[in-house]
Amino acid sequence: MTEMVDRVARAIYRADFPLAFEDAPSVIRERHLAEARAAITAMRVPTVSMVDAAWIETHDSGFNPDGALVKESSTFHARRPEDLPRDTAYEVWQAMIDEALK
After folding, report:
1. DSSP 7-42
2. Residue 99, SS3?
3. Are 29 and 52 members of one domain?
């Protein structure tokens, strides 16, 4: 179990129970750890808006009048995260999620 899995499991547990996570029966703790892994796994593929946000943060860019994301020298149209080059925020995000699940 990683720190992130534990952190998410505790957050899910706190939403369900007022008691300390450590005091919960092991079957309850294991269920919440499994739920945490499932939640983190579901986040492995970033949404288009997440990828767009990363692009904006890492490039000189803005939006043109029709709402498409534009880089100064070229137009960037990420309609699907998997369309991005592999050396982008998409790949970094997946590596971070994979590490959280180890």
Report:
1. HHHHHHHHHH-SS-GGGS-HHHHHHHHHHHHHHHHH
2. helix
3. no
Domain around 83: 48-101
The whole-angstrom separation of Cα 89 and Cα 19 is: 38
Pairwise pLDDT comparison (91 vs 66), residue with the higher score: 91
pLDDT digits (tens, 9 = 90+) for 26-35: 999 999 999 9
Half-sphere exposure of 8 (CA within 13 A, CB side): 19
Distance, CA of 46 to CA of 32 (rounded, Å): 23
Backbone angles phi, psi at 49, to 5 degrees: -65, -30
Q: What is the mean pLDDT of residues 76-91?
A: 61
pTM above 0.85, yes or no: no
